[in-house]
Amino acid sequence: MSETLVFYSELDPFEQWRGLLAPLLPGVRIVRSCDEVVDPASVRYALVWKPPVGFFARFPNLQLVINLGAGVDSLVGRGDLPDVPITRLSDPDMARMMAGYVLFAVLRYARDIPAFERAQRERRWHYLHPREPSSIRVGVLGLGELGARAAQELARQGFSVRGWSRSPKVLEGIPCCAGQEALPAFLASSDILVVMLPLTPQTRGLLDAERLAMLPPGCCLINVSRGPVVDQAALTAALASGHIAEATLDVFDREPLPPEDPLWGMDNVLITPHLASVALPASAAEQIAANVARVREGREVQHRVDPVRGY
Ligand code: GLV
Fold it and tell me: Would you place residue 35 in the very low, low, confident or very high pLDDT band (cuts 50, 70, 90)?
């Protein structure tokens, strides 16, 4: 019986993925979503981003679920997961794309660009003497593949970068600390805080009102991981009071961010629609095909997600 890989994503370009995967997966039919699947029993592999509830139940012979992205919180949290290995993308190009976004957002603050944007709207010549990058303390919260890469790119720009993670990590040239007890001092010394933690039961709401208040007055916050890591109401209040001077937000509690959300109207907030980093077909197709090959050979897959740990 021939094998099928089923694809589901409302955002990612199916034809491009199929074009790249097909030559790497001879003998595997690659089809989009359930309605194209002729024989659900032939589906062995699912390449998915946020499939609807009940999606997997149709495929009794599924052997592998591949998350079409780095963050797996939307998959591991659901009750209808099949009992098969789940993998996520772990792609240096995706990490570079993320680091590029973080670098842009940090540089925008470090070079006072929002102040110049405001001044320009008023036709006002507003000279602010540039600061030394080393005088700006950038805290990277979360040192997984994406966080570590972003921290290194920031350090290369000369910022005073430090990292925090739940369990101890070592990064060359970057002072790192770990654990809840280290968090208050870490927050208190972050002029720019970059949130790069995966969303797990342990990180949900980690940055609540109390912890946001530990940040230095006038700091900037960048969230590129998941909205619910930060208490969005507390963040909005801190931005309104000016305790947090500026925020760049790519992720939110609810996406799309509802039109009535007060964040839209805030002059000190830059909103982007969850695209700081996306799955890149040209670089990730090979690792997906390699994992399919491993399943076919009965070998352990790479970049396997632990649903209990949550990432
Ligand atoms: C995007 O948010 C991803 O997790 O890949």
Answer: low
Cα–Cα distance between 87 and 7 in angstroms, integer? Answer: 14
For 290, the token pair is 């390699």
The CATH number given to whatever domain includes residue 23 is 3.40.50.720
Q: Domain count of the chain?
A: 2
CB of 70 closer than 6 angstroms to any ligand 1 atom: yes
290 pLDDT more than 90: yes
What's 306's DSSP letter?
-
**109 HSE (CA, 13 A, CB side):** 29
- Secondary structure (3-state) at 138: strand
| Pair (23, 163) in one structural domain | no
Atom of ligand 1 nearest to the CA of 94: 5
What are 116-175's pLDDT values in tens digits? 999 999 999 999 999 999 999 999 999 999 999 999 999 999 999 999 999 999 999 999
Distance CA 85, CA 62 (A): 10
Q: Please tell me if the CB atom of residue 227 comes closer than 6 angstroms to any atom of ligand 1.
A: no
Tally of CA atoms within 13 A in the half-sphere of 55 that contains its CB: 20
Whether residues 114 and 86 fall in one domain: no
- Ligand 1 centroid–CA 40 distance in Å is 27
Is the whole model's pTM more than 0.90, yes or no? Answer: yes
Burial (Cβ within 10 Å: 0-12, 13-18, ≥19) of residue 162: buried
